[in-house]
Design goal:
The complex is a heterotrimer of chains A (634), B (99) and C (307). Chain A has helices at residues 2-21, 30-53, 85-108, 115-134, 138-156, 163-194, 199-202, 206-212, 214-232, 239-243, 249-258, 263-270, 272-277, 279-302, 306-326, 332-359, 377-391, 397-411, 414-443, 465-486, 490-499, 510-533, 546-552, 557-603, 610-633, and strands at 62-72, 75-83. By secondary structure, chain A is mainly alpha-helical. In chain A, strands 1-2 form a two-stranded antiparallel sheet. The mean pLDDT of chain A is 87. Chain B is mainly α and 99 residues long. Chain C is mainly alpha-helical and 307 residues long. Chain C contains eleven helices and two strands; from the N terminus they run αααααααββαααα. Chain C has helices at 12-34, 38-58, 62-87, 102-123, 140-149, 153-174, 185-195, 232-237, 244-262, 282-290, 295-306, and strands at 218-219, 225-226. In chain C, helix 1 packs antiparallel against helix 2. The chains are: A mainly alpha (634), B mainly alpha (99), C mainly alpha (307). Chains in contact: A-B, A-C, B-C. Chains B and C meet through helix 1, helix 2 and helix 3 of B and helix 1, helix 2, helix 3, helix 4 and helix 5 of C.
């Protein structure tokens, strides 16, 4: 079975290689080939999963060492795969959702002449993501990490003829790079501390190392958190996610909902042992998660662009996961569980949004939608199920996973637990509000359609079956996954051997938390209902309050970055340039000038006249004689 | 009289010769001044020979003369060839080596 | 000369000789440096060298004294004079200094160096001297020879190599490679005829016996100088000595004397048309004013003479 792990990665990688180098003759079959290879990968994943289920809970890890990649003295980096329950969960999510999105893209990208290339990039993305979650050491993980960054750059900027898309791709790449620096520094610290890259060498020793090298382990934790912030769009590296919606909608669904942004959660969960050994880093993680979940939720409330509203939602939900992962053993399992359920319903929501856009001449402004439920029934139903799942409607996926995270936050204990729990509850209320808003503005109310730039009236219609089928499958996932996972705590038992689990002691009972969540849900939905269903939605956005305006501008994240980083950087470079010119160049040029001036004067001695040279000779002889006499006298 | 007076004379002649080298521009005269300096040295050597009571100083003076002869031959040949090409015997005209 | 093994004083005779000849030597050295013409410098230097030769002899260095006279004053100084002649004795050296500050620097350095040397000698304890009597007991030349061929034989051999090298070097330096074939006399004369400028040989310089040096041009029948009779280089340097005025004056005086003696009428016969030489000689002009009356007659004849 071990050999299949390599094939799991190799399959989409092969697809990417063929599709990107195959040339035009593959244009007609490229999308089928890409989808087939993604499906092969998924099938392999399922086979491995079945194999894994047949084993004992403690004996389920598979390890496959392929070759030694970089053997340089004491430095040794291997290419090896490790498939345990955590990786397995991700493999199934990535290949499953990935395959569905491949299928969806066949219909969505039908009219794009560069469809073959698009599928190549998608396959490359899958391969990189699988490499990331299957690697058995941080060095290989880093390779997958960078591959994901590259693929996301290519996919976000896929419509590179649009300057906004090209800029968004660059922005995503640059912001990710900041996180990547964190990861690389963290890996270097790990190597110097533990002398290895392998999870098996590092993680078991983390607790022991923290007693002797506490600061280093905490530093590693912070560096990994920085990496996770970059990849998972957490505050303060969140700014790229909203702009990344410039990419095709399947990309948004695949990368920015189900897979890429979850890499940070995976990293923190995988490195759980390090965070357990570094409580300060853990505190930072929960803080980042809590801040981001509110940040993303507030941004999501103010956006009129359906994809950007969903992007804010994604940020917020990832915030939940990061917060849960930061809670330690009480939260890891629920972070991953929410990640999986979120993968279903958020992918479904994005695909639904793509379907709406597909029918509305690529219009993204929700103020120009309205009353679409009659025209796109399948989209409406699947989107609606995703909506119910994300707001935590009882019985659907989101209810189980989110509720558990809120419980875990309270279970953290102390003031910290109360603050986190209240944040999570508030986030749940806001989530209910903005998702209801999206739902009402899109599918209910009167038609507010306007012709597009070319004057075409929108004729909303249901999308082709290649698009609706994935949406239906994802809707099933959104509805059932949470319940399945929670029956008999099966998901907790599944992951416990890898991540560990503890219940914690919550100051509030599970029933109270559930009741609180329900209250938050009702309040959020009620406010949205009052604001958007009872009144007609204005076609032009009202000016709104200060907070609304700030939220429309992503809570001034770009302004902050511009003022602090860009301007600050400019000032720094300018002062450095000034310093360089005045001080460094001054010293260098001054030395050169003084040498030049001195030699200009000394040069006059070299006038070419023999007699002048003779004078120097005689003068020198006189000095020598004087010195000799002086020495004799002394 | 003490034979050291010969040494004073030698020093005087040497200095006069050196000053001549510095002052005169005619290469031939400069050369003569160099010869004067060599001769002053020879006088010193001969005087030293007398002071020490052996002939080594005289032998050195003899060698000086031979070397001076060789030097004169080559030096005058140089002067002649410079004069041929530049029509001047002034040392100041041979200043192409300056920066 | 001195037989004393260690003495503090030389003989009075030597002292007298030293002070007299020493003065001469210093004067000669100063002359070498200060004389304007290089010939004079060379002669002054020769004088100094002879004085030095005498000093060598006086100090028991007989061989060196003779060699000094023969080699230095005889050979080397002649070589100097020869080169001076070759380069041009009249190229008088201007003593005006052209390098800024050179004279002051030279004076300062020279004075400083001299004072230091003399101070150094004064400091040395030279109260006694051995004298060369002992060393010269077997004769100065055999003594030197013994040293040269035993102790200094290696230096001697090297000196030989040096001399040979110097001789070859001098030959190489002064040798001029002929790059084209030398024209034969026949080709030269043919070329001359073809040009037609000067088919006949150029006039020889110094027509008159008193001035037959190369820098004196020949005079033409009308008393003016023949430029071509002087060597081109001298002409280029402007070193022609125009003696026509002097000659004409003497000639006119002779003429007048003979006429007086023959009691001829000076107006009737005009032996020579006085030329307007470059010198613008006074005698000629006076003569002309004297013979103002017969002017037309003269000019006719002068034209004939010129032709």
């Amino acid at each position: 079975m071990e050999n299949l792990i390599g094939l799991l990665v190799a399959s989409p990688l092969l697809g990417a290689g063929i599709l990107l180098t195959g040339g035009k003759r593959l244009d007609r079959v490229g999308h089928w080939l890409g989808t087939l290879l993604a499906l092969v990968s998924f099938a392999l994943g399922v086979a491995l999963f079945a194999n894994m289920l047949g084993k004992d809970a403690d004996d389920r890890g598979l390890h496959s060492h392929l070759f030694t990649w970089v053997p340089v003295g004491g430095f040794r980096a291997d290419v090896g795969f490790q498939l345990d329950q955590l990786s397995m969960t991700f493999v199934l999510l990535i290949t499953g959702v990935g395959t569905l999105i491949h299928i969806y893209s066949i219909g969505y990208m039908e009219h794009d002449e560069r469809r073959r290339r698009f599928f190549g990039y998608l396959n490359l993305f899958l391969a990189a993501m699988l490499l990331l979650v299957l690697a058995d050491n941080y060095f290989l993980l880093y390779a997958g990490w960078e591959g994901v960054g590259l693929a996301s750059y290519l996919l976000i900027g896929f419509w590179q003829h649009k300057p906004s898309a090209a800029t968004a791709a660059k922005k995503a790449f640059l912001v990710n790079r900041v996180g990547d620096i964190g990861l690389s520094v963290g890996i270097m610290l790990m190597f110097t501390t533990f002398g290895s890259f392998a999870f098996a060498d590092i993680l078991p020793k983390a607790q022991e190392a923290s007693t002797t090298q506490h600061a280093t382990v905490t530093g590693i934790g912070f560096m990994l958190l920085l990496a996770a912030c970059g990849k998972s769009a957490q505050v303060p590296l969140q700014s790229w996610l909203g702009d990344a919606m410039e990419g095709p909608t399947p990309v948004s669904a695949l990368i920015h909902a189900a897979t890429m942004v979850t890499a940070g959660v995976y990293l923190i969960t995988r490195s759980g042992a390090i965070f357990n050994a570094a409580p300060d880093a853990q505190t930072a993680v929960v803080t980042v998660g809590a801040v981001t979940l509110l940040f993303g939720a507030i941004v999501g409330c103010a956006k009129d662009d359906i994809k950007k509203a969903l992007a804010g939602s994604t940020m917020s939900q990832i915030g939940y996961m990061i917060m849960a992962a930061g809670l330690g053993p009480i939260g890891y399992v629920f972070a991953i569980m929410h990640l999986v359920t979120h993968g279903f319903f958020k992918a479904g929501l994005f695909l639904g949004a793509g379907s709406v856009m597909h029918g509305m001449n690529d219009e993204v402004d929700m103020r120009r939608y309205g009353g679409l439920r009659k025209y796109m029934p399948v989209t409406f139903v699947t989107f609606g199920l995703g909506y119910l799942a994300i707001i935590g409607f009882p019985g659907l996926s989101g209810f189980f996973s989110k509720d558990k995270i809120i419980e875990a936050a309270f279970a953290k204990g102390g003031t910290e637990g109360w603050i986190l729990g209240c944040c999570a509850l508030l986030g749940a209320a806001i989530t209910a509000f903005y998702m209801t808003r999206v739902m009402i503005m899109t599918f209910f109310g009167e038609k507010r359609w306007v012709p597009d730039a070319d004057g075409h009236e929108p004729h909303p219609h249901e999308s082709p079956s290649s698009m609706t089928i994935p949406m239906i499958i994802l809707a099933f996932g959104s509805v059932l996954a949470g319940g399945l996972f929670s029956i008999n705590s099966s998901f907790v038992k599944w992951l416990e051997p890898v991540t560990g689990h503890s219940e914690g002691d919550s100051p509030v009972s599970a029933g109270t938390v559930t009741a609180g969540t329900m209250v938050a849900l009702v309040i959020g939905v009620g406010i949205a209902w009052a604001m958007y269903a009872r009144r007609s939605v204005p076609a032009v956005a009202p000016r709104g309050s200060l907070l609304t305006r700030a939220a429309r501008r992503d809570l001034l994240q770009d302004d902050f970055n511009h003022v602090v980083l860009v301007r600050g950087g400019e000032h720094l470079t300018r002062s450095l340039v000034y310093l360089d010119h005045s001080l460094v160049d001054g010293v260098v040029n001054g030395t050169a000038a003084s040498v030049g001036g001195l030699s200009g004067r000394l040069r006059k001695l070299q006038n070419g006249y023999v007699r002048s040279y003779a004078v120097s000779m005689l003068g020198g002889s006189a000095v020598l004689v004087a010195a000799t006499l002086l020495m004799r006298a002394v | 009289m003490n034979p050291a007076n010969y040494l004073y004379l030698s020093a005087l002649l040497f200095t006069i010769g050196a000053a001549g080298v510095l002052i005169r521009r005619n290469a031939i005269v400069v050369f003569m001044c160099v010869e004067l300096m060599l001769n002053a040295c020879n006088l010193a050597f001969v005087t030293f020979s007398r002071l020490h009571g052996n002939l080594d100083g005289q032998v050195i003076a003899f060698f000086t003369m031979v070397v001076a002869a060789a030097e004169v031959v080559v030096g005058l040949a140089i002067i002649v060839s410079i004069f041929r090409s530049r029509h001047s015997a002034s040392v100041d005209d041979a200043n192409l080596m300056k920066l | 000369m001195q037989l004393a093994a260690a003495a503090t004083q030389t003989s009075t005779g030597e002292a007298v000789q030293f002070w007299i000849l020493g003065t001469v030597a210093v004067l000669g050295a100063l002359g070498t440096v200060l004389m304007k013409k290089s010939v004079h410098s060379a002669l002054s230097l020769a004088g100094t060298m002879i004085v030095l030769a005498i000093f060598y002899l006086a100090q028991g260095a007989y061989f060196l004294g003779i060699v000094q006279i023969v080699v230095y004053t005889g050979a080397i100084m002649m070589l100097f004079l020869f080169v001076v002649m070759l380069v041009g004795i009249t190229a008088a050296d201007s003593l005006k200094e052209t390098l800024k500050g050179q004279r002051w620097l030279a004076a300062a350095c020279g004075l400083g160096f001299g004072i230091l040397l003399i101070a150094g000698i004064g400091n040395a304890s030279l109260d006694t001297f051995a004298g060369t009597g002992q060393a010269n007991s077997a004769g100065n030349v055999p003594g030197l020879a013994r040293l040269i061929f035993t102790k200094y034989v290696w230096s001697f051999e090297i000196t030989g190599a040096l001399l040979i090298t110097a001789a070859i070097g001098a030959m190489v330096l002064t040798h001029r490679e002929r790059t084209e074939r030398r024209s034969t006399q026949r080709e030269l004369s043919e070329a001359r005829v073809r040009e037609g400028v000067h088919v006949a040989p150029l006039p020889a310089p110094g027509t008159y016996a008193r001035h037959n040096a190369v820098d004196v041009p020949a005079l033409l029948p009308d008393g003016s100088i023949a430029e071509k009779s002087v060597f081109g280089t001298l002409r280029g340097r402007g070193q022609i000595r125009d003696v026509s005025a002097d000659a004409l004056e003497r000639l006119a005086a002779l003429e007048q004397r003979s006429e007086e003696w023959l009691e001829r009428d000076p107006d009737r016969v005009e032996p020579v048309r006085l030329a307007q030489g470059p010198g613008g000689d006074r005698a000629g002009r006076e003569e002309r004013t004297e013979r103002e009356s017969g002017r037309e007659h003269e000019s006719e004849r002068a034209e004939e003479g010129a032709k």
